[in-house]
């Protein structure tokens, strides 16, 4: 008898218990549709995610996706995190931005490199949503060139004294814990002169500015963070050693690029869904818009790009879970998914015609919200440089001498 054909997938799926994870995704999908989507207009109007919604998001465990189970989180593998992000992000960006620092950049430095004491002190509170995390790297004169950061940390007994200003810090106005990158070695202007610190709200010398007025993402507060002779216990240096801050940041950002790529795909799926519903109902020239082939071309281009991004991100995610170095691929994912989302937003506004420009229809909000994806966590240009640099380095390694 011929052997049973086997499914030769290039990578095994890194889902620990597929059946219960599928049930979890179905619950999450339902929560997004029934609890979060109906709140989108209120969140935009109030410019905050109200406490009752935050409470329900916490009860669903949304703050602890990637935090290890021993600290109260779900301990998701990268693939699980990405699949959850694809569901969670099919609503206004503000919701996932509210929990996103805890499930991403605001906890990941601790998860990756924190000491056991640091982990048990902060991770349970981040996982439950009792405190909100923030990742404070960018400065007024150190954006894409993050290594140029000037915030200083000078040792003074069993403390470090921090001075400097961070800008554009997501969730800073509401954060209880800041992962702050500061220069501990003033003579070393490179990456190895930088250390990461855990700074709690309420530490003397730490203050946050008012939330910026932004192009979009109403409900996701972002502000400056100021350090004015801010005394931080030496025990709060991430990992307990100086000079490792940048290495930690790169670990965080590598994983976060995949996470963010998934968070770009969810809104694209949602925008296409909404646009398809609209063109299936509205009539012009005596027929529904969806019957016009030029409108169908817009639908096809959105769907094709969404599928391409999803496949790319999932393949890269599985490689990461297998322990492969995906530094270049993570850049490719973030670059492609964020640019893709911008193109989808533009086409979806087009499909709605004038209604795409009117706030009541919601599409213009997504259009503004997703513009940020191409700017933060590495602009598109910085990812292009990274991808080209690594491609050329690989070629040069293989080139005969
Ligand atoms: C709403 C919001 C939230 C944010 N959240 C956070 C956060 O939580 N934590 C945090 O640390 N940061 C955060 N950021 C900062 C964000 O990561 C930076 O804005 C981003 O890295 C770009 O830095 P910049 O704004 O200084 O722009 P610049 O670096 O000044 O870049 C300006 C332009 O020049 C281009 N450019 C720069 N260098 C090069 C080059 N070498 N080659 C080609 N082109 C180049 C860029 O691509 C861009 O188009 C946030 C920003 C915003 C707007």
Task: Please provide a written account of the structure.
With 401 residues, the protein is an alpha+beta fold. The longest helix is centred in the middle third of the chain and has 37 residues. The N terminus is likely disordered. 46% of the residues are buried. Strand 2 and strand 3 form a beta hairpin. It has a four-stranded antiparallel sheet, with no helix packed on it. It contains twelve helices and nine strands.
Descriptive key words:
alpha+beta, three-stranded mixed beta sheet, 12 helices, 9 strands, binds flavin-adenine dinucleotide
Tell me the layout of helices and strands.
Blueprint: H1 18-36, H2 40-46, H3 51-59, H4 78-88, H5 93-103, H6 108-113, H7 116-128, E1 133-136, E2 152-156, E3 159-170, E4 177-183, E5 194-200, E6 206-208, E7 222-233, H8 245-281, E8 283-284, E9 287-288, H9 293-321, H10 327-352, H11 363-369, H12 380-398
Parallel strand pairs: 1-4
Antiparallel strand pairs: 2-3, 3-7, 4-5, 6-7, 8-9
The structure holds flavin-adenine dinucleotide.
- Specify the biggest β-sheet: 4 strands, antiparallel
**Proportion of residues in helical segments:** 40-55%
Strand order of the largest sheet: 2-3-7-6
Q: What is the 3D shape? A: globular
């Amino acid at each position: 008898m011929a052997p049973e054909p086997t499914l030769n997938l290039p990578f095994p799926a890194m889902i620990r218990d597929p059946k219960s994870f599928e049930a979890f995704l179905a619950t999450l999908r339902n929560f997004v549709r029934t609890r979060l989507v109906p709140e989108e207009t209120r969140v935009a109007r109030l410019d905050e995610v109200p406490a009752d919604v935050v409470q329900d998001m916490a009860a669903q465990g949304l703050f602890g996706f990637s935090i290890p189970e021993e600290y109260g989180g779900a301990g998701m593998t990268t693939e699980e995190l990405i699949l959850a992000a694809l569901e969670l992000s099919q609503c206004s960006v503000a919701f996932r931005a509210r929990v996103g620092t805890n499930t991403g950049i605001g906890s990941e430095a601790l998860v990756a490199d924190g000491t056991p004491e640091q982990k048990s002190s902060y991770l349970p509170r981040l996982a439950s949503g009792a405190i909100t995390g923030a990742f404070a790297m960018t400065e007024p004169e150190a954006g894409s060139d993050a290594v140029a950061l000037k915030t200083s940390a000078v040792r003074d007994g069993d403390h470090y004294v921090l001075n400097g200003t961070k800008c554009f810090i997501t969730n800073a106005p509401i954060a209880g814990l800041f992962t702050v990158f500061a220069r501990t070695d003033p003579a070393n202007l490179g990456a190895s002169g930088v250390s990461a610190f855990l700074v709690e709200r309420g530490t003397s010398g730490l203050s946050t500015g008012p939330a910026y007025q932004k192009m979009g993402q109403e409900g996701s507060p972002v502000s400056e963070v100021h350090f004015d002779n801010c005394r931080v216990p030496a025990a709060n240096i991430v990992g307990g050693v100086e000079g490792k801050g940048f290495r930690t940041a790169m670990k965080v950002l590598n994983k976060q690029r995949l996470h963010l790529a998934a968070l770009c795909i969810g809104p694209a799926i949602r925008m296409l869904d909404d646009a398809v519903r609209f063109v299936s109902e509205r009539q012009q020239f005596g027929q529904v818009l969806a019957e016009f082939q030029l409108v169908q071309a817009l639908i096809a281009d959105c769907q094709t790009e969404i599928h391409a991004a999803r496949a790319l991100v999932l393949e890269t995610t599985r490689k990461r879970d297998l322990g492969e170095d995906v530094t270049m691929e993570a850049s490719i994912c973030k670059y492609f998914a964020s640019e893709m989302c911008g193109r989808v937003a533009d086409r979806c506004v087009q499909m709605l015609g004038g209604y795409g420009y009117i706030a009541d229809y919601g599409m213009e909000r997504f259009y503004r919200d997703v513009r940020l994806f191409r700017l933060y966590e590495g602009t598109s240009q910085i990812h292009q440089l990274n991808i080209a640099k690594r491609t050329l380095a690989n070629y040069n390694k293989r080139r005969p001498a």
